Amino acid sequence: MKKQKKDILGRAIDELKEQGRSAEPPQEVVNETLTRLAQAQATCDPADRRYTKPVSGSKISQRLWPTGRWAVAAAVLLTAGYAVGRISAPAEPDIDQLRAALLPSLAASLEPAIRQRVLEETRQDYQQAMVAGYIRMKDELTEQYRADLNRFAVQTFAASNTATNELLGQLVQAVQLSHRQDRERVAAALAQLEASRREDTAEFRTALAALAAQTESEIQHTKEEIVYLLANVQTDASVHPPEESSEIN
Amino acid sequence: MQVYDWQAIVTEHGPAVWQTAYRLLGNHSDAADCFQETFLAAFEFSRRQPVRHIPGLLVRFATRRAIDRLRQRTRQEQYRQCGSDAACSASACDPASEAQTRELSHQLRRALAELPPREAKAFCLRYFSELSYRDVARELNIGTSAAGVLLHRAKVRLREILNAEELETNEVSP
User: Fold this and answer.
1) Could you give the count of Cα atoms lying within 13 Å of A205 in the half-sphere of its Cβ?
2) Which residues does chain B have within 8 Å of residue A117's beta carbon, measured at their own beta carbons?
3) What is the C-alpha to C-alpha distance for residues B59 and B49, in angstroms, rounded to an integer?
4) A51: helix, strand or coil
5) Stated pTM of the model
């Protein structure tokens, strides 16, 4: 049981270690971190950008330490030289002579260190100024790019809007013209239909009148024939009396 | 005079900080925040006092911030298993074993979030950053024996939590 528990924890540790083993920070995260570090460096006091080892004492002495330690070293050397001279010399040493003797050697020993320090400070300041300038320039260029992009977008939208309005106006005019032409065609067709209807009505009336006249003459003619026929029938009955009717009866 | 080239430091030690953060947090978003906070905290720290060992300081800061974020995430119950965006490794081609190992790592993260901060930090420094007991003790500013006690308690507690979760999983899906 204990072996199994150990295996569980061991496997979990191995898995977690394996998950992060091959991971690399994304480049955008690294860039963002560098930008924030540069901003933090730029916002802090230039005197605080580099670290100096703390010394015991007040804050004023700590602040004066970077520039004063060379003076302290020179004073120590002077004191040591003075003490050596005082001990070794049988007579009272000449302070001015001793200082004149030590000054060239001190200057020769301190000059390269001071020169190196000044060069290092200059290089660091130049590098930090370059980083700050790069960030500022990048921000300004980004801002300018966005402003130009917005201006171009507004101009493009305005031009597109104008062109769209013109095309819509043309379309409306074309639709109105088409409607007017359609109405004119419909009105012409209706007028033609009305004329045809009137012409047909007149022809129909004329034909009806002719038909009525003809019908009337035909009726008159039929009446005359009926009268003539009746006259012939009466004449035949008077000449030949009806025998067949009795036979039938 | 001690001058730090932070660009070189980020380039050189960034992968170690990222691995520490990503291993504990398990997703890119939280790991990226932890990455940036670690370097900014190291920058502020370097302005106040001397730094003996930059990689150790960065790993210590990254571990502490990752554990804080892990605990905060667990408290707010925002941790979701699907939030983990770890890519499937090419070697683990079996989906079942892949799921089991991922579940195990999630359980270990949750268990780490439940530990006291010092125990969790000691555990991470020892087993993820692979520091020795003496280095762990030095990073935590405690004695070596105290570091050993912390690590022992952390391991016992983690085993208890992992076993309890495994037992619960087995009961749910026999």
Assistant:
1) 6
2) 1
3) 18
4) strand
5) 0.45
Between CA B117 and CA B123 the distance in angstroms is 10
Burial B129-141 (b: 16+ CB within 10 A, else e): bebeeebbbbbbe
Domains in chain B and their CATH numbers? 1-78 (1.10.1740), 105-174 (1.10.10.10)
List the single best residue of B5, B9, B24, B36 to mutate versus A (max A Cβ within 10 A).
Answer: B36
Q: What are residue B2's DSSP bridge partners?
A: A51
Contact A78, A95 (CB under 8 A): no
Is the distance from CB of B128 to CB of B108 less than 8 angstroms? Answer: no
Q: Which residue has the tokens 């507690």?
A: B157
| Residue A45: per-residue pLDDT | 54
Query: Shortest Cα distance from B163 to chain A (angstroms)?
Result: 7
Question: Using one digit for the tens of pLDDT, what is the confidence trace for B38-97?
Answer: 999 988 888 888 888 888 888 888 988 888 888 887 776 544 544 444 444 444 456 666
Q: Which of B19, B43, B159 sits opposite A20 (nearest CB)?
A: B19
Q: Per the CB < 8 Å rule, is A19 touching B105? A: yes
Please give the helix or strand (H or E) that residue B8 lies within, else none: helix B6-25
